[in-house]
Amino acid sequence: MSYPAADSFLPVDQPVTLDDVSGARKMLAGVARMTPIEGSRHLSALVGAPVRLKCENLQRTGSFKVRGAYVRIAGLLPEERAAGVVAASAGNHAQGVAHASALLGVRSTVFMPLGAPLPKIAATREYGAEVRLHGQVVDEALAAAQEHAERTGAVFIHPFDHRDIVAGQGTVGLEILEQCPEVRTIVVGMGGGGLAAGIAVAVKALRPDVRIVGVQAAGAAAYPPSLAAGRPVSIRHQATMADGIKVGRPGGVPFRIVAELVDEVRTVSEDELSSALLLCLERAKMVVEPAGAAPVAALLGDPGAFTGPVVAVLSGGNVDPVLMQRILRHGMAAAGRYLAVRLRLTDRPGALATLLGVLSEADANVLDVSHVRTDPRLGLTEAEVELHLETKGPDHCDEVRDALRTASYTIIE
């Protein structure tokens, strides 16, 4: 999605300061939870240093977004509150704005695309917002939200490009320093950059030695070209499962902070994202959305690049169950937990049973079997079988292939 600059915002050259973040924290007392930090033995062993997870997936509304939304809306003038607020989002920002508005007694309207996951639509309504479904993608919902703001006078609440939003998100950084004072590296996902910028403001003011690493999905990475150009630039195509960081253009406010204070921006692949989500679920017992798993994906992709102790921010856990199912399958495949093999065998009674016996002995779980008997490439007595198997990992995949070859089956590559 591509959010425009907000002309009505405070000047972008006015910096966000530690005092702003500290003030935001006082404002959020009793509103945002101080989310826990949990250790990860698996990631610690991989990195060779302590790794801890900052669990913003356990925040109210399921993500960090409520922090910035509340600070932004609480700062409105009485006449602005009376006009109500409007936002556009497919998920986390929608819920953050809805909940913050309800707490502050402000009317909220949230435009969501028609294809937004039903659980996120329902949650946004339950938090008190009027939900209007418009368009097929967030950009179309965004245009409708801006038209609504111009027509009604409602205040448009940008998801990242405002000083109050950045200050609110920066409270995550203050909590990290209190909960893990020995931290040396903080890894955080980046879309528009509000969370990374806020954390950087807070942390660098108090601990300039701490390294801040931002992580973007490779298929929607607007920050690397923007940093190279020295200004926010738009990317034309965004393709990633991590919709929470799927942003086509950095915000002007966070960009200036990121350019100055964030030490490095890395990108991660879709395979790394899905593997990270699977690891969070299996090892950390954490339900995390793909955007929230981006820091873990960066650790998996290059574990030797991070000086510990490391804190990885799990920014959100609002993942649609249908998408979760697909991602977990993808993650298991990326982790070598699925194996697809094709082979030929003699088409006679008992042949398939014999093959399945070999797989049983190799401790492979058969998920699906398909036969081809009519292909002209096959002999009169031949059949081709394709099997989808669940395995224990890459080494077990090799063992299964070896068992099939030992039993005189020819695997078709």
Automatic annotation (TrEMBL):
InterPro entries: ACT-like_dom_sf, ACT_dom, ACT_ThrD-II-like, Ser/Thr_Dehydratase, Thr_deHydtase_catblc, TrpB-like_PALP, TrpB-like_PALP_sf. It is an enzyme of class 4 (lyase). Its EC number is 4.3.1.19. GO terms for biological process: isoleucine biosynthetic process; L-serine catabolic process; L-threonine catabolic process. Residues 340-413 form the ACT domain. The keyword Lyase applies. GO terms for molecular function: L-serine ammonia-lyase activity; threonine deaminase activity. SUPFAM superfamilies: ACT-like, Tryptophan synthase beta subunit-like PLP-dependent enzymes. Its cofactor is pyridoxal 5'-phosphate. CDD domains: ACT_ThrD-II-like, Thr-dehyd. Keywords: Lyase, Pyridoxal phosphate. NCBIfam families: ilvA_1Cterm. Belongs to the serine/threonine dehydratase family. This is threonine ammonia-lyase. It comes from Streptomyces uncialis.
